[in-house]
């Protein structure tokens, strides 16, 4: 019997776990690695093994070095380039992909010049390490907001975008340079953290071509292979890129319930150079992130719900799972969401209502 193909994952969080899950039916052994584990272990890496990452940044450790220096570490140079918002935004400018106007905050940056250029609210973002809205700092002219000394050289400043809504697109590029995309996803963020997603929405279809052209240009420009996610602001009839993730992405989790080939399988197929066709959408879907909440098995009684529980310690603000609900008809969706509202705490009431208001399939 031939040996299974092996894909190592730098990192062992929920994305690595879901990649493993997706690899099983393809006979791909996906091996997430806890790079922080104190270890002098020599990983049994073979020459034809494939290496990917579930995060764009990682501390150097014996284990991370073994993975990141392997010749088949796919997209190796891309991670660092996108992990730093300065180089990420520079790339978008170079490729002429529309993004929120920005500049580097360095020792010479004058806060009044920022207010003059971008308006009375300016968002500073740490160059590295930010996620789920962490590493952000609003400068407000009305409050005489100043640039903290330890943000100089370490942050970019961005114009506050008065967007209509937030959307994202997940796409894939193969070794041959072919690209495929899922339909645009509508996302709701609360306090900088993704709460819910809805896809596909007929009303977003007119923006699909623009989204694909943007992400296609980026993946092409990076000679990228695998799945990439692009978060955008919709402003009127156009998109502005907010940020890029060189990996499977939370706003693509709905594809597990809604498509014949989810983003995890798509990523593995691309990495392993297996055939890929346009992913087919079987059902519209909604996804609810489970954040700092205990597992409730009543969720499993909903007729259209699929639970992904990450088995992490529950802490406030921490993503501990997600629920996918495929939408077979409007009545079933309404009944399931209404039921969830009665079971879930206060901070879920607005996101669940948002789903009902927006799930217009
Ligand atoms: P992620 O967890 O997705 O990596 P993040 O914390 O790294 O997120 P962003 O996605 O850049 O950072 O920002 C988080 C949220 O903050 C966005 O989804 C959006 O709601 C808001 N935001 C970001 N940039 C802007 C901006 N320029 N104007 C207005 N709102 C913004
Ligand atoms: Mg984001």
Automatic annotation (TrEMBL):
<dbReference type="Pfam" id="PF17769">
    <property type="entry name" value="PurK_C"/>
</dbReference>
<comment type="pathway">
    <text>Purine metabolism; IMP biosynthesis via de novo pathway; 5-amino-1-(5-phospho-D-ribosyl)imidazole-4-carboxylate from 5-amino-1-(5-phospho-D-ribosyl)imidazole (N5-CAIR route): step 1/2.</text>
</comment>
<feature type="binding site">
    <location>
        <position position="166"/>
    </location>
    <ligand>
        <name>ATP</name>
    </ligand>
</feature>
<keyword id="KW-0658">Purine biosynthesis</keyword>
<feature type="binding site">
    <location>
        <begin position="130"/>
        <end position="136"/>
    </location>
    <ligand>
        <name>ATP</name>
    </ligand>
</feature>
<keyword id="KW-0436">Ligase</keyword>
<feature type="binding site">
    <location>
        <begin position="158"/>
        <end position="161"/>
    </location>
    <ligand>
        <name>ATP</name>
    </ligand>
</feature>
<dbReference type="GO" id="GO:0034028">
    <property type="term" value="F:5-(carboxyamino)imidazole ribonucleotide synthase activity"/>
</dbReference>
<protein>
    <recommendedName>
        <fullName>N5-carboxyaminoimidazole ribonucleotide synthase</fullName>
        <ecNumber>6.3.4.18</ecNumber>
    </recommendedName>
</protein>
<comment type="function">
    <text>Catalyzes the ATP-dependent conversion of 5-aminoimidazole ribonucleotide (AIR) and HCO(3)- to N5-carboxyaminoimidazole ribonucleotide (N5-CAIR).</text>
</comment>
<dbReference type="InterPro" id="IPR011054">
    <property type="entry name" value="Rudment_hybrid_motif"/>
</dbReference>
<dbReference type="InterPro" id="IPR016185">
    <property type="entry name" value="PreATP-grasp_dom_sf"/>
</dbReference>
<keyword id="KW-0547">Nucleotide-binding</keyword>
<dbReference type="InterPro" id="IPR003135">
    <property type="entry name" value="ATP-grasp_carboxylate-amine"/>
</dbReference>
<keyword id="KW-0067">ATP-binding</keyword>
<feature type="binding site">
    <location>
        <begin position="242"/>
        <end position="243"/>
    </location>
    <ligand>
        <name>ATP</name>
    </ligand>
</feature>
<dbReference type="InterPro" id="IPR013815">
    <property type="entry name" value="ATP_grasp_subdomain_1"/>
</dbReference>
<comment type="subunit">
    <text>Homodimer.</text>
</comment>
<dbReference type="InterPro" id="IPR005875">
    <property type="entry name" value="PurK"/>
</dbReference>
<comment type="function">
    <text>Catalyzes the ATP-dependent conversion of 5-aminoimidazole ribonucleotide (AIR) and HCO(3)(-) to N5-carboxyaminoimidazole ribonucleotide (N5-CAIR).</text>
</comment>
<feature type="domain" description="ATP-grasp">
    <location>
        <begin position="89"/>
        <end position="272"/>
    </location>
</feature>
<feature type="binding site">
    <location>
        <position position="189"/>
    </location>
    <ligand>
        <name>ATP</name>
    </ligand>
</feature>
<dbReference type="InterPro" id="IPR040686">
    <property type="entry name" value="PurK_C"/>
</dbReference>
<dbReference type="Pfam" id="PF02222">
    <property type="entry name" value="ATP-grasp"/>
</dbReference>
<feature type="binding site">
    <location>
        <position position="85"/>
    </location>
    <ligand>
        <name>ATP</name>
    </ligand>
</feature>
<feature type="binding site">
    <location>
        <position position="125"/>
    </location>
    <ligand>
        <name>ATP</name>
    </ligand>
</feature>
<dbReference type="InterPro" id="IPR011761">
    <property type="entry name" value="ATP-grasp"/>
</dbReference>
<comment type="similarity">
    <text>Belongs to the PurK/PurT family.</text>
</comment>
């Amino acid at each position: 019997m031939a040996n299974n193909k092996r894909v190592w994952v730098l990192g062992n969080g929920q994305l690595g776990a879901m990649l493993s899950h997706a690899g099983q039916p393809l006979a791909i052994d996906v091996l997430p690695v806890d790079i922080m584990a104190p270890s002098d272990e020599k990983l049994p890496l073979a020459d034809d093994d494939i290496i990917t990452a579930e995060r764009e940044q990682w501390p150097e450790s014996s284990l991370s070095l073994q993975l990141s220096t392997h010749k088949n570490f796919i997209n190796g140079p891309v991670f660092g380039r996108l992990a730093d918002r300065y180089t990420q935004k520079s790339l978008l400018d170079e490729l002429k992909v529309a993004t929120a106007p920005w500049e580097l905050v360095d020792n010479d940056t004058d806060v009044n010049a920022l207010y003059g250029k971008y308006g009375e609210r300016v968002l500073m973002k740490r160059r590295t390490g930010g996620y789920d809205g962490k590493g952000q700092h609003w400068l407000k002219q009305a409050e005489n907001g100043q640039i903290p000394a330890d943000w100089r050289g370490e942050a970019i400043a961005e114009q506050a975008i008065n967007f209509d809504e937030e959307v994202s697109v997940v796409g894939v590029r193969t070794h041959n340079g072919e690209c495929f995309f899922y339909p645009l996803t509508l996302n709701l963020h609360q306090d900088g953290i993704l709460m819910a997603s809805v896809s596909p929405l007929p009303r977003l279809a007119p923006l699909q071509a623009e989204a694909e052209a943007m992400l296609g240009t980026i993946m092409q420009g990076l000679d990228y292979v695998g799945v990439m996610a692009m978060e955008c602001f919709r402003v009127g009839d156009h998109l502005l890129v907010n940020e890029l993730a060189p990996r499977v992405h939370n706003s693509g989790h709905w594809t597990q319930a809604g498509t014949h080939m989810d983003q995890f399988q798509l990523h593995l197929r691309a990495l392993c150079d297996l055939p890929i066709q346009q992913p087919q959408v079987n059902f519209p879907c909604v996804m609810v992130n489970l954040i700092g909440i205990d597992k409730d098995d009543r969720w499993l009684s909903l007729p259209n719900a699929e639970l992904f529980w990450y088995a992490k310690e529950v802490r406030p603000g921490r993503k501990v799972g997600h629920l996918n609900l495929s939408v077979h008809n409007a009545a079933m969706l309404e009944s399931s969401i209404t039921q969830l509202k009665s079971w879930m705490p206060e901070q879920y009431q607005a996101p669940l209502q948002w789903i009902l208001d927006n799930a217009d399939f």
